[in-house]
């Protein structure tokens, strides 16, 4: 999906593919393929985003993987039910291997997350509570940063619904997508602080239904209706009345 004009270009059928991450170093997508129908063991896949060609695969331990992101130093973080596995994708011969596993000690409903290039911290949205969270992969600490207002459309909510995709754009802004797209400045967030969320102009219609997504941005989407923190509700009212 082109986030500047909203156009969608199918690449290839990808049944069972989840936990997508984009590696800016080599321009490849990485994801986890598995089948809940026939019990196929999950595998990491390196994918050419131009045509969907699978360039390499490697096995993963049996689990259900829902979120994925590649760090600036070439580590692919994939989240299972209770753990995050770290896959090294830096090998020129594409021999991908798990180099570390750590537990997520707090119950979180994360459909996707992203690694901030500047500091290597992982950000996502707990869909059970609509709360922005930060995971430090060095200390394994999970920090709740505050309610994001991304539930169903209404007073105090931007109407994003369940967050299915998360990524950082070329400017370092955290962007999430569900029924709508929202950008969040995470540079100076404190634990349980109010979060300044801004709607992002992507397309006049809603974004397509996503199982997962990864940002491959070369440009920054145009931001509309910037709101001074924490005045989210007035924006929602204008949005609802324009429908």
TrEMBL record:
SUPFAM superfamilies: C-terminal (heme d1) domain of cytochrome cd1-nitrite reductase
One of the Pfam families matching this protein, by short name: DUF6923
Domain DUF6923 residues, every copy: 18-191
InterPro entries on file: DUF6923 (IPR054215), Haem_d1_sf (IPR011048), WD40/YVTN_repeat-like_dom_sf (IPR015943)
Species name: Actinomadura gamaensis
Listed name of the protein: DUF6923 family protein
Superkingdom assignment: Bacteria
Regions crossing the membrane: none
Top-level taxonomy: Bacteria, Bacillati, Actinomycetota, Actinomycetes, Streptosporangiales
